[in-house]
Amino acid sequence: MEKGFVFLDEVLRNVRWDAKYATWDNFTGKPVDGYEVNRIAGTNALARGLLEARDHAASLGYGLLLWDGYRPKRAVDCFLRWSEQPEDGLTKERYYPNIERAEMLAKGYVASRSSHSRGSAIDLTLYHLDTGTLVPMGGNFDFMDERSHHATRMITSVEAQNRGHLRSIMESSGFEAYSFEWWHYMLKNEPYPNSYFDFPVL
User: Fold this and answer.
1) Which of 72, 166, 78 is nearest to 123 (CA)?
2) Residue 90 belongs to some domain of the structure
3) For this structure, is 10 an active site residue?
């Protein structure tokens, strides 16, 4: 592990995770370059922010489910190569039914340089501590559509309220939201703002 980074599961007790890009359950339809294990890494600063977010969420009856943290640059490059390949239809209906692969970059769903590669961004959602069920957010992780935007009017009032709970928890813990993805948050005071790392998650 790179100095200054940790596996978040070693620091964050009572937090669930499912590193989607280490599995076949993601928009590329297969494990992504650089993700060798189903674990999520991040900077020490990210871990501290998430500890605060975890405690805030728990006070409201919620737990955190993490989907992605540190993302190797080679994974970002893998996304870019994938977006340039001919459409095979395997994941389109689930993840990007209303746009084409080639539009992902221009529409802000895939980045040529990702804040995740700096180690201080996190993709996550909430679940109910008493039942373990996910909190309805009006759309799934990595659903590339206007429905995923914070400003969308395409979800129910309850789903919008739930997104508001997540946003309040994260912003009060030192994170800022990304307007196009309700699940994506980044530390306001990240330790490596100009560094894009490429070590694999092993």
Assistant:
1) 166
2) yes
3) no
**Residue at 30 is within a domain:** yes
pLDDT digits (tens, 9 = 90+) for 124-151: 999 999 999 999 999 999 999 999 999 9
User: What is the C-alpha separation between 147 and 145, in angstroms, rounded?
Assistant: 5
Under the banding of pLDDT at 50, 70 and 90, the label for residue 108 is: confident
CATH number of the domain encompassing residue 118: 3.30.1380.10
Catalytic residue of the set 93, 159, 181, 190? 181
Q: What is the pTM of this model?
A: 0.95
Range of the domain at 12: 5-187
Number of domains in the chain: 1
pLDDT digits (tens, 9 = 90+) for 31-73: 999 999 999 999 999 999 999 999 999 999 999 999 999 999 9
Q: Which of 117, 112, 80, 111 is nearest to 193 (CA)?
A: 117
pLDDT at 154: 96
DSSP state of 129: T
Q: Report d(CA 81, CA 117) in Å as an integer.
A: 17
CB atoms inside a 10 Å sphere around CB 160: 16
Is 193 a domain residue? Answer: no
| Cα dist from 145 to 9, 16, 43, 122, whole Å | 30, 26, 29, 19
Taking residues 95-116, report their average pLDDT. Answer: 92
Across the chain, what does the average pLDDT equal?
96
In a domain, 197, yes or no: no
